[in-house]
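Reopening this one. Same input as before:
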Amino acid sequence: MAILEILKLPDARLKEIAEEVEHFDEELREFIADLEATRRDGPAAVGIAAPQVGRSQRIVIIDCSTTRKPVPNHGYLVLVNPEITEWEGFELGREGCLSVPDYTGNVIRAERIKVKAMDPRGNPLVFEMEGFEARALQHEVDHLDGILFIDRLVSRRTDLFQRKTYRKGGSEG
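Same output, byte for byte:
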């Protein structure tokens, strides 16, 4: 497995709409393994989308089971050609992104969603998600449509925050 380079804003490829996956073969599964290795290599990343590593295909990985506080979730998911088919409620929450490493922001997302997708072998999947898991999936699906969380901020002046950096030993940098 390889750690892939993560594209960062302002790379124009992050704004492209990804293509649907049509071939569910060993090459796809090898790419997914590399994508997962890249997610795990990132700083506390719960999700990653193929366009973030320069591959314009509709593939996302999320895993909300490792968050600090327990939240309802389905564990580790690889979703190919995901489509959100239903959504309900709205909630404001803070998000960060591997492709926008220096900032976090407040984004309004649906509280509950239903999603249909395929697994890496082309088998159909359907999930109902809520809370943090629903937010994480919406964030990753946005990547497939060329949308970054900063595109969803109500106000860059009040909803965008510079990430704190820390020196060794725990003091702010």
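So the earlier flakiness isn't reproducible anymore. For the record, The helical segments are 26-41, 131-144, 156-159.
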